[in-house]
TrEMBL record:
It comes from the Bacteria. The chain crosses the membrane at residues 42-63, 70-88, 100-118. Keywords: Membrane, Transmembrane, Transmembrane helix. It comes from Gemmobacter aquatilis. This is Uncharacterized protein.
Amino acid sequence: MPTRTRSLNVVAILAIAFGLLTLVSGGRALFGGADMGAVVPFVLWFNFLAGFAYVAAGLGLWYQTGWATGLAIIIALATAAVFAAFLWRISTEAAFETRTMGAMVLRLAIWMMIAIVAKANGRVRQI
C-alpha cells in the first residue's frame, strides 16, 4: 500500500470528524425535539444524511480505496447543488436561519478542499 501523505491524513481525519459532528448535530435537530427556528427541511435532511457519506469518504481516504476520491467529489457537487437550491428558495423570501447560510458555505468549502486534496493525492489503490 502506498504511504499516505500528510495532507491525505489530514483530510481523511477532517472528513470523519466532520461527518460525526454532522450526524450528532443533524440528529439532534431532527430527532431531539430542539427548536431550531426557521430551518429549511431539505437542507437539514441532506446535511444529516450526508454525514454518513462524510464518514465513509473519510474512511475510504484513510484506507486509500479506489472509490474515496470519487465520493469526495460527489459530496462536493451534491453540496453545491443543495446550496444552490437553498439560495433559490430563500430568494423567494422564504424564512431561513442565517446560520444555515454560513453552514452551507463552510460545508462546500471543506468538501471542495477535501476533493481537491484527494484528487491531487491520486495514489489510491483499487480494491
